[in-house]
Amino acid sequence: AIAINTQMIELDNRAADAYTRLAKCFLTQGRVSAAHDMYVEVLEFEPDNRIAYNNVSRLGKKIDRGLKLRAIASLENYDEAFSVGVAASRRKDFSFAIAALKRALELRPKSVYACNALGAAYRGDGMPSEARSIYQYAMKERENNSSLVGLAAVERDMRQYKEAIELYEKVLSSDSRNVYALNGLGGVYMDMEDYTQAEECFNKGSKVEGGIEDAVKNAVKNAVKGLEKLMKIYKENGEVESVERIRRWLMLLDKQRR
């Protein structure tokens, strides 16, 4: 197909259909830049061609992204690679975050912080097996609660509830006020429809003082959201007393924080 359409352009260098077909052929071969150039050429003599216009925009962004990813691979500074990766993860650009954080780990292989951030990015990108492996690697470097919480979350993602509970409880055995573990454990119990245990976890999580750092404040808010979800479930199940119990608790929390 490429040879035939090239011959058509040799005969008529304004053959828009031939350029368009060449662009499609190049895309199937992964030659994004060449495909982009074909669509740009179409616009030279058919500026209103919407297919060409849309593809120039789409492929241009893809080319820019490819250049950025190659730039990440050439970074020589851990701090830059790590901070870029964390920022990308926060804006949910997980593939870019993964590339940057992998580079950070290449530059500092024993960084537990980079491991944990990479594990979170893998989870965000729907790659639980990779996340599990990197959290386990971090634990070999240094046992820490952040890696344990991340690993527990992965086990929950993979519906390995027994393992998830054991990991969250291990964290809480050394830090009973760890709101991330409390929220995660509450979430596991909700998945298992054990609403009594879930409510207990979210109650504890919602009581943790959030003034230490913004991340803790957000985690406490998530505990409150967990209680609100439970209240909705209780309401659907007609459990009036449970609904009122949570409502009273949320009102008390609200008064305490004013």
Keywords:
mainly alpha; 258 residues; 81% helix
Task: Write structural notes for this entry.
By secondary structure, the protein is mainly α. Helix content is 81%, strand content 0%. It has 14 helices and no strands. Helix 13 (214-236) runs antiparallel to helix 14. The longest helix is centred in the N-terminal third of the chain and has 24 residues, at 50-73. It starts with a helix and ends with a helix. The relative contact order is 0.05.
Quick summary of this structure?
This protein has 258 residues and is mostly helical. The chain has helices spanning 2-11, 16-28, 32-45, 50-73, 78-90, 94-107, 112-124, 128-141, 145-157, 161-174, 179-191, 195-207, 214-236, 240-257.
